Amino acid sequence: MSLKKNINNIKKNYSLGIIGGGQLALMLTEAAKKRDLDVCVQTKSCDDPAGLKADYVIEADPLKIKGNKSLISECKKIIFENEWIKIDKLNLIDNNDIFIPSLEAIKPLVDRFSQKKLIDSMNIPCPRWLGIKEFKSLSDEENNNWSFPLMAKSNKGGYDGKGNKKIKTKVDLDSFLTENDSEDWLIEEWIDFEKELALVGSRDQKGKIRFFPIVETFQSNNVCDWVISPAETEYDLNLFAINIFSSIVNELNYVGVLCIEFFYGVNGLLINEIAPRTHNSAHFSIEACSSSQFDQYVCISSGIMPPEIQMNCEGAIMINLLGLKKTFPISIETRIQKLSEINGSNIHYYGKSREILGRKMAHITFLLNGKTYSDRYDEAQILLTKVRDIWPSPNE
Q1: CB 301: neighbour CB atoms within 10 A?
Q2: Across-strand partners of 354?
Q3: Distance CA 42, CA 61 (A)
């Protein structure tokens, strides 16, 4: 581990420390800079996205306790880029009040098992599920209550389609259970949904909750392709989603930003997953809202009163730009240049060192003008086509 300077005049204390240095940490750093806050990040390389913008970099694996201690010694408050943290190790550091959210609040959300148990304990609707060991012990009669296809999900580390496996037949299931004889996976009933929705909100130190509009997310090969905000939803559904969000963050005394992903269909509104952090589905908020999800987290963590959240336009579309094959004929620089020439484009390039197939390299946001959802959706489709003509999705 080494410490490296990103500015000439190094300060001893920084307003915020971020565990992690990827694109979420980059956008958190950018939001902090707009608030004139100094930022220190702990990440593996100074060349990571957030390392390029931070005031100070602790060049260390974010999961290593030595680097965590160095970060704590430099910063007034510590925030998280993602939930892949070592709760038990961080608890050994006598500085639990430095973390936003607290370790106690985030602990039930860092893996799928604990999330599912929390949701079940609160009687909130979600797909039926069992751990592999429980599933293996089912009787033949109990097995008949599960129909194919099924979804297998890894307990930890699942994102962007990773850690998910569709099981189509009993042969597939038997093979999967033979290969995975541990509690690293759970089995979940398959949900035929009409829409995938997401709700991102914040809860401040005083317990006040603020919400971004509910959005609809569109996936390609289990990876988010694009997002439209706001979604077309009924009042009762909005109220139910807001009540679910409020119940969870209040139950945990959670402070910070959190996202809930939902399935919606004939079974009503079901929680898919909870992400205790800023989330891809609310990237649109940087341009489309009075305060972005990153601004909310930065304000809450540094003791600044968070602004109220309002859309400053009729709607927005956010499109993910993922890494393409090395053989793709147009360079990433040329793609970015061509995208910038589309009227109304707002490009966020993450500055990652290598373009890898499927890796999140950037996103682009457009504000929409239509007064109705139908008009905004049509407008979004035109923009999506223009973007994909320049930068196609690797999952199509």
Answers
A1: 28
A2: none
A3: 7
Judge: domain 193-390, CATH 3.30.470.20: yes
Q: What are phi and psi for residue 319, nearest 5 degrees?
A: -120, 125
| Alpha-carbon distance values, 324 to 298, 330, 386 (Å) | 32, 10, 17
8 Å CB contact between 275 and 259: yes
Residue 293 has phi, psi (to 5 degrees) of -60, -30
Phi and psi, residue 151, nearest 5°: -120, 125
Rounded CA separation 353/139 (Å): 51
- The domain 128-189 is classified under which CATH number: 3.40.50.2300, 3.40.710.10, 2.40.40.20, 3.30.1490.20? 3.30.1490.20
What are the sequence ranges of the domains in the chain?
A: 2-100, 128-189, 193-390
pTM (predicted TM-score) = 0.94
Nearest CA to 291 among 210, 215, 174? 210
Are 324 and 279 a contacting pair, CB within 8 Å? no
From first to last of the 396 residues of the chain, give the pLDDT tens digit. Answer: 444 444 333 444 799 999 999 999 999 999 999 999 999 999 999 999 999 999 999 999 999 999 999 999 999 999 999 998 999 999 988 666 899 999 999 999 999 999 999 999 999 999 999 998 898 889 888 988 999 999 999 988 666 666 788 999 999 998 988 887 677 899 999 999 999 999 999 999 999 999 999 999 999 988 999 999 999 999 999 999 999 999 999 999 999 999 999 999 999 999 999 999 999 999 999 999 999 999 999 999 999 999 999 999 999 999 999 999 999 999 999 999 999 999 999 999 999 999 999 999 999 999 999 999 999 999 999 999 999 999 999 987
